[in-house]
Write a structure and sequence with these properties.
CATH class: Mainly Alpha
CATH topology: 434 Repressor (Amino-terminal Domain)
CATH architecture: Orthogonal Bundle
CATH superfamily: lambda repressor-like DNA-binding domains
């Protein structure tokens, strides 16, 4: 991962880019987790928080959830069911 990510939008785009490099995308991960792509995007942007989603993304990218959370401004509200 890189430390050049300073905003939530940059974090989401970086996650999307890294997933594409690995042959997948946010929509596929969303389907596997049974969540909407809108929820997935909101979590990537930091509008909402979901440990389950961030853990799944981190596992796909081969990093810790803490690494993903460290990029951009992480002030989202906790999702209760996701």
């Amino acid at each position: 991962m890189t430390s050049n990510i300073h905003s939530p939008a940059q974090r989401r785009e970086y996650i999307k880019y890294q997933l594409r490099l690995r042959g997948t995308n946010l929509a596929e991960v969303s389907r596997e987790l049974g969540v909407s792509t809108a929820i997935m995007s909101q979590v990537c942007l930091g509008v909402r928080r979901s440990e389950r989603i961030m853990s799944a993304l981190a596992a796909r990218l081969g990093v810790s959830p803490e690494t993903l959370n460290s990029f951009g401004n992480w002030e989202g509200q906790q999702c209760s069911k996701h």
